[in-house]
Design goal:
- The chain is of the alpha+beta class and 224 residues long.
- The protein is built from 3 helices and 11 strands; from the N terminus they run E-H-E-E-H-E-E-E-E-H-E-E-E-E.
- The protein is globular.
Length: 224
């Protein structure tokens, strides 16, 4: 005879990770790679968390190329869906959503160092080109547990309390996670480039225009 019966089960302080499939990804990725080549011919890029690779400058989503705008729409849809799924009570139509994106191209040996994206709500990565591998960690993005003081839970080997989680998304896949989550990308161990487009999504209150002065919109700065 059991001495106890469960009455409720809750997941407290959990960290969500979403994965979306973008429609017609093959055609989209072909166009994105071509646009990326054009951009790389015009600028050397900037240095952020990337090590040994190319990182586009400025907000990629301000680029009017149809493929970029299509991906921007997909990113916005994923952010709104994730925000709703996590139980947000605010009406997001009454908020301003800022998106800031950039392209990463990791050549052989290239990777992204551990980092977060402070100031944003969500961060996402869309996979344009992901070289195939049979073994190893090449192409994986790894997330580190933001909680501390959990060594004793490691003894139980409970997945919910593991110290890290690595996944290898495929081309056409978009992943989304809270921007506070520390993440990094394993070195590219193949002879082909790994190309992704990352973005930050930040909700802001909509400012009401004053009759006597012009309101300058807040700028959303890229982190990492």
């Amino acid at each position: 005879m059991e001495t106890v019966s469960q009455t409720k089960y809750e997941k407290l302080f959990s960290t969500p990770l979403f994965r979306f499939a973008v429609n017609d990804a093959d055609a989209l990725n072909t166009a994105l790679l071509a646009e990326g080549e054009r951009l790389r011919s015009e600028t050397e890029g900037v240095s952020k968390s990337n090590r040994g690779g190319w990182h586009s400058a400025g907000n990629l989503f301000e680029n009017e190329a149809p493929c970029i705008q299509l991906l921007k729409s997909a990113a916005e849809s994923s952010v709104l869906a994730a925000t709703k799924k996590t139980g947000a009570k605010v009406d997001t139509t009454k908020l301003d959503l800022k998106l800031f994106a950039w392209m990463n191209a990791n050549p052989p040996g290239g990777y992204n160092a551990p980092h977060t994206h402070p100031g944003a709500h969500w961060s996402g990565v869309y996979y344009v080109a992901q070289p195939d591998v049979e073994t190893g960690s090449s192409g994986k993005i790894e997330f580190l547990d933001p909680r501390s003081d959990l060594p004793n839970w490691r003894l139980l080997e409970t997945p919910a309390f593991s110290a890290k989680k690595a996944i290898r998304p495929q081309p056409g896949e978009l992943i989304l996670f809270p921007s506070y989550l520390v993440h990094w990308v394993y070195p590219n161990e193949t002879e082909e480039e790994r190309v992704t487009i990352a973005f930050n999504a930040t909700f802001r209150k909509i400012r009401k225009a004053s009759k006597n002065k012009t309101i300058i919109p807040e700028r959303h700065f890229q982190k990492g």
